[in-house]
């Protein structure tokens, strides 16, 4: 499933938005501060080298030299390389900042009505929201902005949570149960609630969200650290490779200027990926936020890409949660049409989801539309009879539980009303996990209606997509094993846990983890909290309880459990983008060697001009072109770093082949063409 | 080039491939501690050895204690060999009356044999007593090879085990490697070589009268037994200065083929051991295939370059290819194949003068070594070196499929990447670093016999060979000077142990990890794609590291040769 096809609620900012680009240019200079840059070893080395070269340039400017113009250009492009890297990071951060500013506005100036005494709800004082402490009680009435995260301890209210979720339809928040958590910054629309504040100042959900989208809380993830080590290692190799060259040249009786060595070194070290690494990370978190998922750490996003097993609650996730009619089976001697008409009449007045679904089924199948008869007298469902139906022109149409209908039929004077075909149909339905609903017209048994828990239309494809990604899906349900097995096979999940208790979930997660698997699950209830905390990726629903939201490492603001699929994709995308750009960066070096090495040695080994396979015009233009390419490629790849490499669930080998072809082979070929073109331009403009 | 030569290469490869799973199965049984058909004879000896040494064979070691045991063992080995060489004049079994070996040469030689390099800055028959050869050098030939096998096994166990604190017992591994693997095969090899005409005697040098009536002293000695381990243990230190080109050290074309097989067989079989131990032989074959691709590429280029010769030779009417520095009994194919085999496997035995190869032909041995001696590689060292590159490859591949990288069920994380990078850094540091010093330091420059880029290649080759623990020489360079003895000794030491310690750290860290079951999101590491990627990573890392040095050495020399300039 393609991430981009899914709806996005947060506004998508384009790359060229001047509101982001202009401040980012400024930020690029601010980030030259070595204390900021030291976190990114490759770029820090680049900056150090650039500063040293600039010092040499100043010295040469004072003492005078032959090819000053060439030297100036190299140094300028070195500075551009550093700035471009900073710019990439600033752009990625800028996109988050715009969202953070919007969030900040919702909170600015919120005044809390803090209760003076716990037992008197009428006496309160107005205090700024920032001064609230954990444990304070506040009153929120219609129109008030809830001043902080907390739990409703009294009352019920409808709350507009658009500020955090983007969804303007109000939700119900009430004391007790699973819907007691409220978020600071949301607005009470009706009624009055008392909220116990649970967050300390500066650590509320909104605060965390702001810090998250701003990228301020970003820490290097384990994978990023490993990649950095690889990049540092490669850089050290290139330090050795370039630092030994002057001695090789001296042996051949030549010299090589520092500026040329620096140019070789800078083009060889993996500046492309080094420059884009943090932008990739920030953009990954940003993508999650766009899908209305807040991750408490980058580690969790990365773990999401590694998930082996996904635990899903059945109700609401896999099925609609209501039983719906799917077929009507008549007893022998009754036509299907006759039974269907009776079912329709008996359900016309039934406003339950089950009743509606019978009407929908019959109308879809036969298109019969009986005008409701005036004489029709609806018989509503009662717990005593466990029947409902209608009395109509002397007919007593009833539907209900099989035993109740049989009792009703007997009471109408029919004592051998149960044909074996009926019993077989009822048993078949029960066995398949459905609910049989018998149908009678007075003493005459008409048939049985098959009610079942209907699987959502697109889940099967989504699970198939997950399977192609290598992820096993496990359904958790309170149903008995028979019903569970039936729904599991229909939905296409790989495994299920029937009659599951919270302990079962926890046990299942632990046993899977013991086998080395990574588990994701989503949940909303307080009893889900232990399992959410135990899972490697625990996605809590925004509508869930505070306990659940604190236990998970992600919060889904849309409360959509199937969102995990996107989370997994974003995690994979993050790693893939890093891998692809690293491969690209390293592959680029081949062409750069062919540009610079002949240029470097040609003065004393003229034979090496044979290696100048690109036919670059002069040694100086070759070196300058390589440096310019090296800087420009960073800018060219910013969109890819922000957008991410597209993930396709086509199996690991196919995916790797594809990415290797694009970023590996492409990374070798592209710079040959790029450097050649730049060389043509450099010479056409007489830059050297 | 001719068809018979190609058939000879094909036949050699076929025998090697056929032997790999057979020897692999045997090695796996030996190191899993199972019974083998040799157990009735060797097991009692093994038990006695453990009892004498006070080793509890059931007691497994943490990677740190394993490594410490290994290092202590080498310290002891260093002291013993150093003293033996310095004091050989006072010790028995010295019929030729050899004097004490000079201090710097002893340092170099001791380091060389300790690290399985067998770089020789001396001529054996004019420097070493029989005792030094047999008790010193030959013993180290066994032990350095056995250490290599032991380390590779510890690393393989790291991959194969899950949630384990231990990686095996060093003393047990080194005992089994010597007793069950090296000694039995060496006995067979030595007998084979004696049959082919190799001497095996403790008697004095033979005096012969030539046809012209002149007196000639023919050096002999316990040759066959030392040559067997020299090859099987990828040591390469010859009994004679001329090494495997000496008629008594490699008498026939048949012995030449058997020698090449002996060089590669344990290294190849260990890939199969890896496959068996991680529970999927195809994993082992994938690694073997990657080695095979690099090996065959080297053979094709080297054989092509040598049989084509040079235009200068052809314009003189010499069309048979470049026979300079080669033995007639081996011919071009026997020499080119041997050169690739010996450098692919960190052996370093030579049956022709690599210095006299064409520029391209001579660059292949150089590249083989600069890649880190992983093209089959030295016994054990080749496998653990290759696994370091596998870690880097898997890391990149894993990222590109959007998953934390894993290999045979083990997640490759920061620690493994760090250690692998650390180990790989040793190659540029020692090879390029020492070369850079040697080509500008006047006493070192004085050792260079040929001017220009060829002289540069000689120095580059010397430090490459020593750092990679190969030991083959490009000749043309006077190695027995204080500078080259000391610098080379350091390069060999660092090249060996700076690889081993990170490899052991990886072994420990992997063994402690859980084993992750494979899913369809896991990148398969048994197919052609993985092999291709692994080869690609090895070539790119090697290429990027050494391109400048190769450019001013063999590449410029080759380009000059095309223009008719020879060095």
Assembly type of the chains comes to heterodimer
Task: Output the strand order for the largest sheet of chain B.
Answer: 1-2
Overall geometric form of chain A: elongated
Binned, the helix content of chain A reads 40-55%
Distance between the termini of chain B: 25 Å
Number of strands of chain A: 21
Unreliable spans of chain B are: none
Average pLDDT score of chain B? 90
Number of helices of chain A: 23
Describe the fold and architecture.
The complex is a heterodimer of chains A (688) and B (567). Chain A is elongated and about 120 Å long. In chain A, strands 1, 2, 3, 4, 5, 6, 7 and 8 form an eight-stranded antiparallel β-sheet that branches. In chain A, strands 9-21-20-19-10-17-18 form a seven-stranded mixed β-sheet, sandwiched between helices. A six-stranded antiparallel β-sheet of chain A has the order 11-16-15-14-13-12, with helices on both faces. In chain A, 51% of the residues are buried. With 688 residues, chain A is α+β, with helices and mostly antiparallel strands. Chain A has 23 helices and 21 strands. Chain A starts with 17 loop residues before the first helix and ends with a helix. With 567 residues, chain B is an all-alpha fold. Chain B is built from 19 helices and four strands. Chain B has helices at residues 3-31, 39-53, 63-86, 103-114, 124-127, 130-160, 170-195, 223-232, 253-277, 281-308, 311-315, 331-344, 359-370, 381-400, 414-438, 442-445, 452-467, 482-512, 528-562, and strands spanning 206-209, 215-218, 406-407, 410-411. A two-stranded antiparallel ribbon of chain B has the order 1-2. In chain B, helix 9 (253-277) packs antiparallel against helix 10 (281-308). The longest helix of chain B is centred in the C-terminal third of the chain and has 35 residues, at 528-562. The two termini of chain B are 25 Å apart. Chains A and B meet through helix 7, helix 8, helix 21 and helix 23 of A and helix 14, helix 15, helix 17 and helix 19 of B.
């Amino acid at each position: 499933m393609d991430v981009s096809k899914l709806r996005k609620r947060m506004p998508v900012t384009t790359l060229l938005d001047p509101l982001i680009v202009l401040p980012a240019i400024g930020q690029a200079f601010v980030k030259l501060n070595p204390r900021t840059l030291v976190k990114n070893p490759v770029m820090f080395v680049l900056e150090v080298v650039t500063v040293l070269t600039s010092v040499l340039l100043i010295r040469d400017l004072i003492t005078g030299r032959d090819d000053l113009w060439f030297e100036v250009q190299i140094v300028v492009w070195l500075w551009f390389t550093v700035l471009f890297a900073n710019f990439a990071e600033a752009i990625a951060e800028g996109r988050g900042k715009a969202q953070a500013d919007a969030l900040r506005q919702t909170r600015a100036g919120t005044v809390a009505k803090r209760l003076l005494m716990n037992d008197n709800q009428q006496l309160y004082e107005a205090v700024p929201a920032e001064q609230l402490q954990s444990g304070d009680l506040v009153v929120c009435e219609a129109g008030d902005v809830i001043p902080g995260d907390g739990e409703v301890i009294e009352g019920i209210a409808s709350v507009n949570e658009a500020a955090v979720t983007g969804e303007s339809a109000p939700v119900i928040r009430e004391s007790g149960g699973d819907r007691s958590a409220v978020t600071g910054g949301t607005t009470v629309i009706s009624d009055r609630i008392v909220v116990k504040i649970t967050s300390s100042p500066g650590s509320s959900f909104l605060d965390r969200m702001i810090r998250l989208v701003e990228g301020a809380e970003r820490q290097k993830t384990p994978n990023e650290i490993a990649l950095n080590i690889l990049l540092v290692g490669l850089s050290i190799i290139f330090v050795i490779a370039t630092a030994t060259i002057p001695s090789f040249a001296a042996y051949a009786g030549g010299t090589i200027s520092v500026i040329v060595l620096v140019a070789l070194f800078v083009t060889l070290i993996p500046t492309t990926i080094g420059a884009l690494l943090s932008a990739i990370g920030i953009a990954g978190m940003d993508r999650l936020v766009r899908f209305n998922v807040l991750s408490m750490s980058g580690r969790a996003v990365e773990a999401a890409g590694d998930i082996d097993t996904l635990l899903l609650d059945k109700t609401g996730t896999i099925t609609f949660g209501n039983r719906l009619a799917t077929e009507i089976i008549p007893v022998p001697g009754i036509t299907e049409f006759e039974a269907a008409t009776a079912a329709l009449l008996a359900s016309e007045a039934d406003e339950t989801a089950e009743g509606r679904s019978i009407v929908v089924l019959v109308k879809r199948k036969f298109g019969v539309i009986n005008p409701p008869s005036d004489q029709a007298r609806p018989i509503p469902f009662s717990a005593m009879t466990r029947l409902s139906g209608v009395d109509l022109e002397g007919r007593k149409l009833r539907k209900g539980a099989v035993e109740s209908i049989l009792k009703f039929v007997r009471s109408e004077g029919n004592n051998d009303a149960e044909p074996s075909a009926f019993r077989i149909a009822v048993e078949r339905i029960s066995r398949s996990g459905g609910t049989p609903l018998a149908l009678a017209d007075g003493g005459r048994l008409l048939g049985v209606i098959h009610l079942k828990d209907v699987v959502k239309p697109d889940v099967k494809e989504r699970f198939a997509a997950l399977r192609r990604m290598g992820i096993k899906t496990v359904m958790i349900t309170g149903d008995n094993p028979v019903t569970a097995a039936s729904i599991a096979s229909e939905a296409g999940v790989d495994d299920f846990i029937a009659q599951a208790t919270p302990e079962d979930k926890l046990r299942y997660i632990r046993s899977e983890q013991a086998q080395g698997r990574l588990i994701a699950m989503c949940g909303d209830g307080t009893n889900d909290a232990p399992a959410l905390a135990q899972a490697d990726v625990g996605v809590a629903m925004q509508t869930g309880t505070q306990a659940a939201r604190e236990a998970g490492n992600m919060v889904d603001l849309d409360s959509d459990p199937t969102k995990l699929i996107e989370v997994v994709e974003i995690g994979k995308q993050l790693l893939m983008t890093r891998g692809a750009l690293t491969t690209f960066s390293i592959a680029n070096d081949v062409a750069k060697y062919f540009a610079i090495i002949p240029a470097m040695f040609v003065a004393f080994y003229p034979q090496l001009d044979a290696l100048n396979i690109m036919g670059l015009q002069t040694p100086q233009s070759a070196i300058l072109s390589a440096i310019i390419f090296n800087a420009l490629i960073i800018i060219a790849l910013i969109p890819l770093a922000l957008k991410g490499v597209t993930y396709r669930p086509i199996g690991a080998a196919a995916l790797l082949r594809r990415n290797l072809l694009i970023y590996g082979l492409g990374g070798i070929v592209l710079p040959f063409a790029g450097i050649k073109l730049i060389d043509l331009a450099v010479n056409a403009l007489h830059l050297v | 080039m001719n068809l018979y030569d190609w058939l000879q290469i094909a036949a050699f490869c076929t025998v090697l491939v056929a032997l790999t799973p057979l020897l692999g199965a045997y090695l796996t049984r030996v190191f899993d501690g199972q019974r083998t058909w040799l157990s009735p004879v060797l097991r009692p000896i093994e038990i006695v050895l453990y009892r004498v040494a006070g080793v509890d064979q059931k007691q497994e070691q943490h990677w740190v204690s394993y490594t410490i045991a290994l290092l202590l063992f080498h310290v002891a080995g260093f002291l013993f060999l150093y003293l033996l060489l310095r004091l050989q004049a006072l010790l028995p079994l010295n019929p030729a009356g050899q004097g004490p070996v000079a201090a710097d040469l002893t340092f170099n030689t001791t380091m060389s044999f300790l690290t399985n390099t067998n770089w020789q800055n001396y001529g054996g028959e004019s420097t070493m007593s029989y005792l030094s050869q047999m008790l010193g050098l030959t013993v180290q030939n066994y032990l350095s090879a056995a250490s290599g096998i032991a380390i590779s096994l510890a690393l393989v166990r790291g991959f194969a085990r899950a949630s384990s604190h231990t990686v095996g017992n060093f003393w047990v591994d080194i005992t089994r490697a010597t007793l069950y693997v090296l000694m039995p095969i060496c006995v067979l090899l030595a007998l084979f070589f004696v049959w082919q005409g190799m001497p095996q005697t403790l008697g004095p040098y033979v005096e012969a009268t030539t046809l012209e009536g002149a007196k000639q002293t023919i050096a002999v000695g316990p040759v066959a037994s030392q040559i067997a381990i020299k090859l099987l243990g990828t040591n390469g230190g010859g009994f004679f200065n001329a090494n495997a080109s000496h008629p008594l050290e490699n008498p026939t074309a048949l012995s030449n083929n058997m020698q090449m097989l002996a060089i590669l067989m344990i290294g190849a079989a260990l890939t199969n051991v890896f496959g068996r131990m991680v529970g999927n032989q195809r994993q082992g074959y994938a690694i073997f295939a990657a080695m095979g691709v690099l090996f065959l590429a080297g053979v094709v280029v080297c054989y092509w370059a040598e049989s084509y010769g040079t235009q200068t030779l052809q314009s003189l009417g010499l069309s048979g290819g470049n026979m300079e520095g080669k033995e007639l009994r081996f011919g071009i194919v026997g020499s080119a194949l041997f050169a690739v085999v010996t450098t692919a496997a960190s052996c370093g035995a030579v049956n022709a003068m690599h210095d006299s190869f064409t520029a391209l032909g001579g660059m292949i041995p150089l590249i083989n070594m600069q890649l880190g001696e992983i093209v089959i590689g030295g016994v054990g060292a080749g496998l653990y070196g290759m696994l370091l590159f596998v870690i880097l490859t898997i890391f990149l591949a894993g990222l590109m499929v959007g998953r934390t990288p894993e290999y045979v069920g083990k997640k490759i994380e920061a620690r493994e990447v760090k250690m692998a990078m650390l180990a790989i850094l040793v190659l540029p540091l020692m090879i390029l670093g020492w070369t850079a010093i040697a080509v500008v330091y006047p006493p070192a420059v004085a050792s260079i016999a040929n001017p220009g880029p060829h002289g540069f290649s000689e120095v580059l080759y010397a430090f490459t060979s020593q750092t990679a623990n190969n030991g083959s020489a490009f000749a043309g360079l006077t190695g027995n000077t204080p500078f080259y003895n000391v610098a080379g000794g350091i390069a060999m030491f660092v090249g060996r142990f700076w690889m081993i310690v990170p490899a052991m750290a990886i072994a420990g860290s992997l063994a402690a990890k859980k084993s992750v079951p494979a899913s369809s999101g896991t990148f398969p590491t048994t197919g052609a794609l993985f092999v291709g990627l692994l080869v690609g990573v090895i070539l790119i890392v090697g290429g990027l590291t050494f391109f400048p040095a190769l450019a001013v050495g063999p590449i410029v020399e080759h380009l000059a040769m095309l223009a008719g300039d020879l060095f």
